[in-house]
Amino acid sequence: MTPDLLVIGGGAAGMMAAGRAAELGCSVCLVEKNERLGRKIDITGKGRCNLTNNCSVQELIASVPSNGRFLYGAVSAFPPQETMAFFESLGVPVKTERGSRVFPVSDRAKDVSAALEGWLRRGGCQVRHGTARELLLCEGRAVGVRLENGEELRAGAVLVACGGASYPGTGSTGDGYRLAEQAGHTVTPLRPSLVPLTAQGEDCGELMGLSLRNIGLSVWDRKRNREIYSDFGELLFTHFGLSGPVILSASSHLREMEPGRYEARIDLKPALSPEQLDARLQRDFAENRNRDFANSLGALLPRKLIPVAVRRSGIPGDTKCNAITREMRRGFLQELKRFTVTIQGFRPLAEAIVTSGGVSVRELSPKTMESRLVPNLYFAGEVVDVDAYTGGFNLQIAFSTGRAAAEAIASKRGEKGGILQ
């Protein structure tokens, strides 16, 4: 029997769409290239799955720098609070943490993917494993898909929800963009978002492996001479530059990347005001008055950071603490409060959490996710040109757009009294 809906992709958007369409009475076939569903969900939030953000619709839209207004209808129809209630109803209790981030109480991402899979299978969804090679179009309408093995699967409607081009090991290899272009859709330029940053100079490489848990970060746009982002949290130095939660968040704000344009300014002691830090330095230097400067910083800085901080200060490491002048001390203080790293660029798209760019929203209906170019063809999730900051917003986008598409397809089926034509 020809199903009402063929979903390409078994990630967050695809599973939500398949399960919801089945719940509304549609016959559904879901095609997934991996052996199991939800592989990308399983690694989100460091394996804990930050599944949404407990915020208002307006706050979520404000956290989507790319085409946020396009999402207003879908997110309003299925907002974060309904996502939380939905997972609770599936037996996955949730909790809200710092920054309104929502996680399963179990802290296991696999509980989220398993709940979605169990829900769609209980609804009668058929799951097929294979890779979609091309859409089947007839008289300008989407009628199915041809798999790589040559098999053709027909359906009343087709939903492309196979993710972006980040984390290709999870199956997100850009298939959706190819299918969209085949149907005549515009795919806006792709670039990484929520991704580590490469840095100029050798200091980051020297600090490789050093994790700083409580730092302040601001990112300065040298071209426009203004701060574009600030945050507080964990940062990791790597052989190529910077990573860690605050850096991933910052990366989505760097929309016009050019080598050397952006500067990361790291406050190594954000809990101390300049006056408090100066008093601390004076005490430390007094207690170590006869020691070399380079040997007096063990209580202040991680061991790996000391040689770099000393070199940047311009104070010779063998200077006795009792010989450090006020001017030298103030210069060192400034370095601690604004440890600068010049950004070279992004790490590769394959290392990004999210792909920025995708199917142009101008060619999609914001309420239904249906193509304006090809009837009965829908898009949802990361394949669409919308991406958000870190904090659960991107998964919420996937759930809301997947659900919007499913409800639109079920409604159209009901109007026609059966399979879509």
Which structural traits does this protein have?
FAD/NAD(P)-binding domain; five-stranded parallel beta sheet; alpha+beta; 421 residues; six-stranded antiparallel beta barrel; 2 domains; single chain; 31% helix
Please state the structural category.
Answer: alpha+beta
Q: What is the number of helical segments per DSSP (H or I, 4+ residues)?
A: 13
Radius of gyration: 25 Å
Helical coverage, percent range? 25-40%
Total beta strands: 19
Identify the CATH homologous superfamily of the largest domain.
FAD/NAD(P)-binding domain
CATH class of the largest domain: Alpha Beta
Mean pLDDT: 94
Would you identify the CATH architecture of the largest domain?
Answer: 3-Layer(bba) Sandwich
Strand order of the largest sheet: 12-15-14-13-16-17
* Low-pLDDT runs: none
CATH topology of the largest domain: FAD/NAD(P)-binding domain
The amount of beta strand, in percent, is 15-25%
> How many domains, as an integer?
2
Q: How would a textbook summarize the main sheet?
A: 6 strands, antiparallel, barrel
The CA-CA distance between the termini, in Å, is 15 Å
Q: What do you see in this structure?
A:
This protein is of the alpha+beta class and 421 residues long. The chain has two domains: 5-192 and 350-416, 3-Layer(bba) Sandwich (FAD/NAD(P)-binding domain), CATH 3.50.50; 196-346, no CATH class. 31% of the residues lie in helices and 23% in strands. It is built from 13 helices and 19 strands. The strands form five sheets. It has a six-stranded antiparallel barrel with strand order 12-15-14-13-16-17. Strands 6-2-1-10-19 form a five-stranded parallel sheet, with helices on both faces. A three-stranded antiparallel sheet has the order 3-5-4. The two termini are 15 Å apart. The mean pLDDT is 94.
